Amino acid sequence: MAPILDIRNLRKSYGATEILHDINVAIEPGDFLVLVGPSGCGKSTLLNCIAGLEPITSGTIDIAGRDMTDVSPRDRDIAMVFQSYALYPTMTVAKNITFGMKVRGVDQATQEQKLSEVAELLQITPLLQRKPGQLSGGQRQRVAMGRALVRDPALFLFDEPLSNLDAKLRVEMRTEIKKLHQTLNASIVYVTHDQIEAMTLATKIVVMKGGVIQQIGTPAEIYNQPANLFVADFMGSPAMNLIPAKVRRDGSANRIEIARAGAAPLVLEDSRPADLPADVILGLRPEDIAEAGFRAGSNVQEAQCHIDMVEPAGADTYVVSELGGKQVTARLHAETSARAGQSMTLAFDLGKVSYFAPESGQRLN
Ligand SMILES: Nc1ncnc2c1ncn2[C@@H]1O[C@H](COP(=O)(O)OP(=O)(O)OP(=O)(O)O)[C@@H](O)[C@H]1O
Ligand SMILES: [Mg+2]
């Protein structure tokens, strides 16, 4: 299948400053691509380049098999939903949704049919005669989506469409957008700085930092095999534990030693990979450290640890222990008997470990 969006060697500068550095990414029809990264990393700029709202400095952008690099935004077969929604305040919801079709000369009957279809889909039929000022944030957000949906474009572009909503509504709308994607099987590029939104919505994630793509992968790939320390730290909440460790080769096994203040080093054994350097950063997610007896896996190892802090979080309880000079978080079950200031046996799932080079930050396994 031909990609629905194919970006090659895209560079974008403002004056002498290059903002996007050699971006290469392609998505298949039906993909939900999420661009995620910290503020200022170039997500909106890249989306605007795809939309044609910003000219690019070099490279090419193909949409649905056509070279759109120098095509004007209106002829790119895209529909965009902005963070601000940009609704017309004096028009009713119905007019807001049909306005674009009217401008393009779509006949009245088709306009009405599309309007009622989309209103039904977004459950805003009772709101069609209201003005945007008479709507809640979530309803306005739906109207903005409705306006994009009636276009039936090759590609939808969303720039942080949920960022104006409160936390509860965000989660609700997130589910609705996901359902919508499944119903329509639409191709979507979606910008967010929220890594949870990225994980829950995407079929494919692009993690960006400073205008450079750090990793492209499925949510599971990004979560389980982060390509470098930046991705490891950025994706996941609470974040992956990143613990400095020494590696000693002992026959066919690696002995992984983690320093502890006022105690003997914690020693774990992991035979893979065979060629680790003497110094590594060991990455282990909070859920891969459990209370002893509560974790099954190919290489689970137990060790006595001093618990500095216990943080109940409803369904789980997080405990913190200092290892390798870091506050290491473990995710335990809610009924754990862990107490701050006491020791307990924790189970480390070495089968889930990521190793990183301390200098370059690159993944080693
Ligand atoms: N018109 C412009 N002229 C010069 N620099 C710009 C312009 N627009 C954006 N930038 C710079 O480009 C970089 C990327 O900006 P962009 O808006 O794409 O970031 P973002 O990832 O969308 O961030 P946020 O999450 O805050 O929306 C920033 O350093 C920004 O200051
Ligand atoms: Mg932005």
Describe the structure.
This protein has 365 residues and is of the alpha+beta class. The chain folds into 2 domains: 5-234, 3-Layer(aba) Sandwich (Rossmann fold), CATH 3.40.50.300; 241-356, OB fold (Dihydrolipoamide Acetyltransferase, E2P) (Beta Barrel). It has 8 helices and 21 strands. It has helices spanning 43-51, 93-103, 108-122, 137-149, 167-184, 195-201, 219-224, 229-234, and strands at residues 5-14, 17-27, 32-36, 58-63, 66-67, 78-81, 155-159, 188-192, 204-209, 212-217, 241-250, 253-260, 263-270, 279-284, 289-291, 300-306, 309-313, 316-323, 326-333, 343-349, 354-356. The strands form 5 sheets. It has a 6-stranded mixed β-sheet, with helices on both faces. Strand 12 (253-260) and strand 13 (263-270) form a beta hairpin. Helix 2 (93-103) packs across helix 3 (108-122) and helix 3 (108-122) packs across helix 4 (137-149). The two termini are 32 Å apart. The relative contact order is 0.11. The mean pLDDT is 93. Bound molecules: adenosine-5'-triphosphate and magnesium ion. Adenosine-5'-triphosphate binds at residues 14, 19, 37, 39-45, 193.
